[in-house]
Amino acid sequence: MTYFNELREITKTIPDTIVDFTIPRDRTSPPTQASSNFITNKEQGDWAEDLIFRAINETSQNYIAVRYGKSDDLVSGEIGFDEFYNEFQDELDAIGKRPDLLVFRKSDFDKNLGYDISNINHSQITDYVKKAIAGLEIRSSAFLIDKYEREMQERTKTHLESALMIKDRIINEFSDVFEHPKKKPYLDILKSINNKTINAINFRRPSWNSTERLQELTLLFKELKHNISVSQKRDYLSITPKVEDIKVVYKWAETFDIPHYYFQVFFDKSYGISFKNILSLLTEPEKEGEYYEISKDIKNQNKTTIKINTRNTNQVAYKVLEPEHKSVRKEIGRGRLLFYVRFEKGTAYLDIVSLKRLLNITDF
């Protein structure tokens, strides 16, 4: 069975409430205005792509990374942007979304085309692209993942311990209150709270104020609910494919039948997962919450995003040296100025064993 046929079989069991593959994708209109934050995020993404590009080409003895994904320095509001954007939409309909990088065996690398084929029309390089062994979609995240996880795990531990202590105090000091039939259900809820159940606990906080003692109990319930709420929050960083991209990545796989991967670059490490595994996760609702979640991303125009727990993915780079950065001034239409951050240099130290396992190759 070919790679794409494997994907097609998986998509048959993905709920259409997540992705409906029977409905054509929605063609989007050009954004009307760029922001400094948007350009900084784009620059960060470009840096992450360059980081992995250089790491592969400086480390591998048998493979070469080539820039492939559509990219342009134009932003909304500049002359030529709308034309570029509409041509990009046309290509999405024709072949799907190009991954940022392609990985070729050195024996298949075309020196005449070089290390950047991103601006060559897809019809001119179709046969060449089909020789690639992998397509890499590179995402970036402005976090130090090790520090984030240490602090989040400590936060969860602290609030879990506080919740259990408050629960015990309420039961021990206010047991007589729960003898009242209307208050007894709260005692049942309290007794059910433990390390294993706390993530599923939810209740409406009582508001008892008729006596000072009941007021004290109400405040304890408020504190209890706060600690439970904090301990239930997501404590991991993630690889973040957008749901709206699933169809166009799938279309590219249909066109070229080449394995596709998502890499997430943090400022200290990098992780990866195959597109095939992303689709498979969407067929396993029992893993939602632990392995992944689906939510609207406020930082990404409220687009629905699949957030995949990096703890269940492959480490691509065990160490990343942070880039240099500088402020840049950009003037666009009507004299409008945008100031953003540009990232340069930095180094990714690849986890060769994990990377080979992810890409399903025996050499590197």
Features:
alpha+beta; seven-stranded mixed beta sheet; three-stranded antiparallel beta sheet; 12 strands; elongated
Structural domain count: 2
Helix content class = 25-40%
Poorly predicted regions = none
Query: What would the principal axes of the Cα set say about the shape?
Result: elongated
Number of strands: 12
**Main sheet: which strands, in order across?**
1-2-3-5-6-9-12
Instruction: Summarize the helix and strand pattern as letters.
Output: HHEHEHEHHHEHEEHEEEEEEH
Please explain how this structure is put together.
This protein has 364 residues and is an alpha+beta fold. It folds into two domains: 3-143 and 239-359, no CATH class; 146-231, no CATH class. The chain has helices at 3-11, 36-59, 81-95, 122-129, 145-173, 184-192, 212-231, 243-256, 275-281, 352-359, and strands at residues 63-67, 101-105, 134-140, 238-239, 260-265, 270-274, 292-297, 303-309, 314-321, 324-331, 337-344, 347-350. It has a seven-stranded mixed beta sheet. Strand 7 and strand 8 (303-309) form a beta hairpin. The longest helix has 29 residues, at 145-173. The radius of gyration is 25 Å and the shape is elongated. The chain starts with a helix and ends in a 5-residue tail after the last helix.
